[in-house]
Amino acid sequence: MTHVRNAAMVLVAVLLVVAGVWASWGAAQHVLLAKGREHGTLTVTGCTDERCSGTYAPEDPGSPRRTLTIGRSVAAGPGSVIPVVVKPGTDEGVRAGWGGGLHAWLPLGGALVLAAPLVAGGLRLRRTAWSLAGAGAALWVAAFLAL
What we know:
It is a single chain. 52% of the residues lie in helices and 22% in strands. By secondary structure, the chain is of the alpha+beta class. The protein has a 5-stranded mixed β-barrel. Helix 1 (2-32) packs antiparallel against helix 3 and helix 2 crosses helix 4 (126-146). The radius of gyration is 19 Å and the shape is elongated. The model has no long low-confidence stretch (mean pLDDT 90).
């Protein structure tokens, strides 16, 4: 019976981490695999609760875009100049550089922190759980400092 319980706990913990990677990959792929994609800077002119938009200045002067939107974050406000990578086929950008990469992986950090109690309580692997929680919290702090 304990093997079934342990297998269930492992399955749920792995499912949480995989879900964190899956949620992060939508934005992280544009930052990590940015070679060959359109780069530039976004000068934020206005923000709503979920999105910020502004004037886009591409590195390649032949770009047809003049405006761009980006997901709202704490560090983006009117007047901010943000380096961005444009998602192919859209007028949506993703923050580039270390700050953008760390910001994109925030869901993975949350998944690691959520999986830690399962590993500690369900599997009785306290050191591993502390490592998971520490890695998730370190990702949160690094993203906060980089933005």
